[in-house]
Amino acid sequence: MIGRQRHIAGRRRNARRAPAGFTLIETALAIVIVGVGVLAMMAGQQAWHYQNDWAQQVGLAARLGNEIREMTLTLPRHDPVAGSFTWGSELNEETLEDFDDLDDFDGEGDGVIFSGIDGTGPVNSLRETIVGLERWSQEIRVWNVDPGNVNLEVSEGDSELMMVEVVVRWDDPRVDGLREMTRVRWIAPD
Ligand SMILES: [Ca+2]
Ligand SMILES: [Ca+2]
């Protein structure tokens, strides 16, 4: 009899111990918790990649603006013969290679664009097309400003003071259309 009681007491002790393994609900909960964690990590990584990529593109845009600035810093404002009378490139100046004064970079007053889409750019300070930047463009405009107020545009030839502007755009594959990435302006030195 005593042996039977011991046997029953032993079974009860075993019954009080937690069963080995997890229940279905515990397993499902664990899967959900781990899944949410993984998703959050992936979202965080994506955001980091996006911001890192964006910082690179902004840096590149600033560089493309400065390439034009360096290219044009030593140029005279106007053609030594035609002066501001011929605003834009002079006769026989058809490509970037031929531009030898600042107003050449304003075309006929509409600006000049060096673009990867049409194969004319973007260009560096040595007037070479930069390979691999087909989605980028540099638009240059040149105009005269009032010496007393450089924010005031005046008619071509009405002032000796000249403003140069470069707008750098990127055809961002993540959105439709071109993004303006940077806009740099400076007063042309004498
Ligand atoms: Ca010229
Ligand atoms: Ca010219």
Shape: rod-shaped
Quaternary structure of the protein: single chain
Structural class: alpha+beta
Which ligands are bound? calcium ion
**Strand content bin:** 15-25%
Strands, total number: 5
Largest sheet: 5 strands, antiparallel
Distance between the termini: 117 Å
Indicate how many domains the architecture comprises: 1
In short:
This protein is α+β, with helices and mostly antiparallel strands and 190 residues long. Helices cover 34% and strands 22% of the residues.
Q: How would you describe this protein?
A:
The protein contains two helices and five strands. It has one domain. It is an alpha+beta fold and 190 residues long. It has helices spanning 2-16, 24-72; strands at residues 112-115, 136-146, 149-154, 162-171, 178-187. The model has no long low-confidence stretch (mean pLDDT 86). It starts with a helix and ends with a strand. Strands 1, 2, 3, 4 and 5 form a five-stranded antiparallel sheet that branches. A hairpin with a 2-residue loop joins strand 2 and strand 3 (149-154). The longest helix is centred in the N-terminal third of the chain and has 49 residues, at 24-72. It binds calcium ion (2 copies). One calcium ion is lined by residues 79, 86, 88-90, 101, 103-104.
